[in-house]
Amino acid sequence: xxIRQLRLISVSYLLLPNLLFFFFWTNSILAAxxxxxxGWLYYSEFRxxxxxxxxxxxxxxxxxxxxTGAMLSLLAGVCxxxxxxxxxxxxxxxxxxxxxxxxxxxxxxxxxxxxxxYGYYVVPAxxxxxxxxLSEAAIFGWTMLGMSLGVAWLYISLGHKIxxxxxxxxxxxxxxxxxxxxxxxxxxxxxxxxxxxxxxxNFENLFWVPNQIIxxxxxxxxxxxxxxxxxxxxxxxxxxxxxxxWAVFPAFTSLVLVAAMVxxxxxxxxxxxxxxxxxxxxxxxxxxxxxxxLLFISHERPAVIGWIWNFNSRFGYRLLExxxxxxxxxxxxxxxxxxxxxxxxxxxLDAAFxxxxxxxxxxxxxxxxxxxxxxxxxxMPLLIVAGLSIFQFASVLDFHKKxxxxxxxxxxxxxxxxxxxxxxxxxxxxxxxxxxxAISTQLLPASVPFEPVPYNAYSNVYEVLRARWSQAxxxxxxxxxxSVYERFIAPE
Length: 492
Fold this sequence. Notes:
By secondary structure, this protein is mostly helical. It has helices at residues 3-25, 28-47, 59-75, 88-100, 119-131, 136-157, 165-170, 174-186, 202-206, 210-229, 237-242, 248-268, 276-296, 315-340, 350-362, 373-376, 380-391, 401-405, 410-435, 438-443, 461-468, 471-475, 484-489, and strands spanning 305-307, 366-368. The protein is built from 23 helices and 2 strands.
């Protein structure tokens, strides 16, 4: 498989749910217009010559990547073989309601369209409608394909060494490790509020939001490849916009990152001008984003948003929380990056990495969502970029005889401490999945009670959010009957 083929498959994978969105969630005139733009942008992908046509993945490597994608899908809890987090009550309900109800989904059935990001579920649900039953094979196959594509991009950036993928995915958990260590050693823990100021690594998010880790891996992996190979950052706008229907906050933070990279490049070229195609590959995807964004903001109850210091009076504790969960994480990332890249003369990823570090420090100052979804979910693609920037030098970690004969320094021990600290929470999650699963509960039913979350426990996402979370969280996704989306975009 060539890089060009991998890129086309990845874009196709992100595009397919968007085609269903424009066909079912928008009126016929707008659908024709947006589908035409999708067609032109996809054609431009075929015409683009920047992605290599040389072989990048051999058949044995593809099988290894597919196996890894399948394992990640199972570990995430898809189909209920391994432990499932509470979020699966919402995941399974969304899949079920897409299968049982007409599109677009409305609550009540004659009311406004629900403003939720269903991108991950619509293709498996569409297949289920065709076969006439809720297809677990469809949701697993779709997830496995997405995970495998994400793993492929990470695998290529890591010098074809899949063993370092877990290190990339666990970047961001060093703060959790330090907070837990301080709590256990000194018995001190800052009081929690209604929302957290903390990073969640991609591996932690794997168990909660597999619908969002897939586009995050794709966006982060493709972006790092583009930077390393000198491919125009404009080529990332289309896949980032396609990810919006999948995961709003990861797409938003990725768009901020790509916009900063493109703006810096365009500012230098003000005097030389731009070609029409360069302008189109940036502006046309942004036009596609408008209907999706209008759907997301057409809520009866507005989302929680504001500066973090406006939501509580315990500013000292929030500052401590920020320092432990954000400051320590970013400091560890910068230290690891500088250590592993110290012999790199090209420094191609310097700008992207330090821009990510700046965003990781600044974005936590804003709260968006009841549990601060901007921070917990939005950091996912940024952490992928940071992790790949650090561990692209993975050969430094290979254990050769020369390494054992060299003198172990304090710096090397601190490097090991940072890597191990970030990895331990992920190892704990793997241990939990190995303990709580369908096999262990069959062998030891009294010791390991485990029952997969049902798909049909609730009729729609509103009911499950109201029953298992809160009325406020249920209301925040209900559409608004007089919104711009309902008046000009929604189908009749």
